[in-house]
Write a structure and sequence with these properties.
The protein is α+β, with helices and mostly antiparallel strands. 15% of the residues lie in helices and 20% in strands. The strands form 5 sheets. Strands 1, 4, 5, 6, 7, 8, 9, 10, 11, 12 and 13 form an 11-stranded mixed β-sheet that branches.
């Protein structure tokens, strides 16, 4: 079934289609009802919702030519677009999007934000404008969706209530011509909200760099529909001037909020697997890539890094950058909430939460907020049992849980110990935002390492909020089916489940344009063009890849052959041999994962191989 997004400005009504499905259509309110956020006596009572967590919101404001920066008489010049300084509803993450997903922004995008805690304005901060390389592969159902847009990387700015934006086109070239800016530029202001299980008094986790926390009350913005649209999370507000989630071509209006309704399920391209955990196991397909590695990695200069000796941390490093705030971090990872690990969930689960949790059911209990770590012996035993069951044909459920390739049964199971992984429930993913079904590829032959380019001004306790913000931006602002990355790692080395579908399964992400098939994408939260990644994060990536690649018999120091889905380095259909652990820039011409993180890939490869116990 195709996914249809309908803008909700007022009340939604259900209309039956010829196929029997239902569409939610809006009945528009008067202009006065949606013209502006509530203020004064019309504002919602902060305490009205009690301890109900704020689910978050996205507000979208159109950019316009800035006064004083209009097109000059000089040939080829273009007008600067932006948003004059203004007050806005609280937000913590900001990005800029535009109408055409394939259009590139040739210029610079900068924002200034005002701290909600101090009232001080920040200096101008740059957004990474070249993010089209983080996307679904060309021609796939996700890429063809009418909801998909182009956009910058989002930037984490902490709790803010004011914004100013400017987008400057590139200067004219020697011929006097300058490229036009993309159509439909808009700034997206994301409030990540609170985790659904946030305990009273623990709602300051998403505070800004100054240490100030988010407000402690939920907000219901005027003009939003609450529970009237199928597939819409109650309390989620999006500001789009009435143009709707899938349209950016309407003339700029006011910043009245709206919700996007989605009729059940995504487009069916024959690759989606139903969310029903009892459905057939998608991992049973024969892998398209090699099952084992036989390439000498000596051609990779980074792989000369010596792995750690027995008892030492293979990826432990001492090159932390204290000035950047990303070196040795004194922040502890988020405290474990009630009902974590193997225990029963503290609250009833929605159908979407149950489906997202059920695909990890053999690794942790339904509703668990984390998947516990295993020792190497426990991990090897679990893998051996799964492979034996797969070989005998008697254990499809077990094989589905591990995601292991049956073709590795004849080989020694080199695999690292399973690390602790915070589940989507654990970091507070709103499962109603994503598309309902899960999307799988056939195997995992390589891992691509990324940085999120969201900046380094976050604490480890705020990392779940940053991840909720990125998730909301990917889905509601960029129009993707779910978070693009398969996993995320914060500066303290905590590993998070990314795109839904099961951490051990070959979930297809939208992280490396042209190479999302048969790979997994891991994003280190932060920006590492000039900042050294924390040693804890490097270690975590090594541990994660040692386990994830070990499920598929892959040597972290080896090479893998992948087939390009199309990109600016390799044409569609080209077979490419890449390092089994590669950086994003190896598959696409991009700065990601940043020079400093890219320089650590040799360390990660060696450490991951050591964790697997390879000679």
């Amino acid at each position: 079934m195709r996914s249809i997004r309908v803008p909700l400005i007022g009340v939604a009504v259900a209309v039956a289609t010829a196929s029997g499905s239902a569409l939610a259509l809006p009945l528009p309110l008067s202009a006065s009802a949606v013209a502006a956020p509530a203020t004064g006596s019309d504002a919602p009572d902060p305490g009205a919702s009690g301890d109900v967590p704020d689910p978050g919101s996205t507000r979208s404001l159109p950019l316009v030519p800035l006064a004083g920066h209009e097109r000059s008489a000089a040939p080829g010049t273009r007008a600067v677009q932006g948003l004059p300084r203004r007050d806005v509803e609280p937000f913590s993450l900001v990005g800029v999007v535009w109408e055409e997903p394939d259009a590139e922004l040739h210029g610079t995008v900068q924002v200034r934000t005002r701290s909600a805690a101090t009232g001080a304005w920040s200096a101008w901060q740059d957004l990474d404008a070249h993010q089209h390389d983080h996307a679904a592969d060309p021609g796939t159902a996700e890429a063809r969706s009418q909801a998909v847009r182009g956009g910058t990387a989002p930037l984490w700015v902490g709790d803010s209530d004011g914004v100013e934006v400017r987008v400057r086109p590139e200067a004219p070239d020697e011929r006097g011509a300058a490229p036009a800016l993309p159509r439909g530029l808009r700034v997206e202001l994301v409030d990540p909200g609170e985790a659904p299980d946030a305990a009273p008094g623990a709602k300051a986790e998403a505070g800004g760099p100054s240490g100030a926390g988010l407000r402690t009350s939920s907000r219901t913005l005027p003009g939003t529909a609450s529970g009237v649209a199928l597939g819409t999370a109650p309390g989620v507000a999006r500001d789009d001037g009435g143009t709707g989630a899938g349209r950016l071509d309407a003339a700029p209006e006011d910043d009245a909020p709206h919700d996007d309704a989605e009729v059940d399920g995504p487009a069916d391209d024959g690759t989606d697997t139903p969310a029903d955990p009892t459905a057939a196991d998608p991992t049973a397909d024969t892998p398209t890539g090699p099952a084992t590695d036989d390439t000498d990695p000596a051609t990779d200069p980074d792989s000369a890094t010596d792995p750690a000796t027995d008892g030492a941390d293979p990826a432990s490093e001492t090159d932390a950058d204290p000035a950047s705030g990303t070196g040795t971090d004194t922040d502890e990872s988020p405290a474990e909430p009630a009902g974590t690990g193997q225990g029963a969930p503290a609250v009833a689960l929605t159908a979407e939460e149950s489906a997202a949790s059920a695909v990890n059911a053999d690794l942790a209990s339904i509703g668990a907020t984390e998947i516990p770590a295993l020792t190497k012996a426990q991990t090897e035993e679990a893998l051996a049992d799964a492979l034996a069951d797969a070989d005998s044909g008697s254990g499809t459920d077990s094989n589905a849980a591990t995601g292991a390739d049956a073709t590795t049964a004849a080989a020694k199971p080199y695999i690292g110990p399973r690390p602790r992984i915070v589940t989507r429930k654990g970091w507070g993913a709103d499962e109603k935002l994503r598309e309902a079904n899960f999307l799988y590829t056939k195997s995992v032959q390589a891992a691509f390492v990324h940085h999120s380019a969201t900046g380094n001004n976050y604490t480890c306790a705020q990392a779940p909020s940053v991840l909720r913000g990125i998730y909301r931006y990917h889905v509601q602002s960029m129009g993707w089916r779910d978070l693009g990355y398969n996993f995320a790692v914060d500066k303290c080395g905590t590993i998070y489940e990314g795109r839904a579908g099961g951490v051990a399964k070959p979930v297809q992400g939208a992280h490396t344009l042209g190479f999302n098939a048969n790979t997994t994408g891991i994003a280190v939260i932060g920006s590492f063009a000039s900042t050294t990644p924390p040693a804890k994060a490097v270690t975590a990536v090594a541990k994660l890849t040692a386990w994830k690649l070990g499920l598929h018999g892959k040597n972290p120091r080896g090479k893998s052959t992948l087939t390009s889905g199309g990109g600016n380095l390799y044409k569609k259909g080209t077979k490419v041999q890449l390092n089994t652990i590669s950086g994003h820039r190896d598959g696409y011409s991009t700065a990601c994962p940043g020079t400093k993180l890219y320089g650590k890939l040799g360390t990660i490869r060696a450490a991951a191989a050591d964790y697997q116990g390879r000679p």
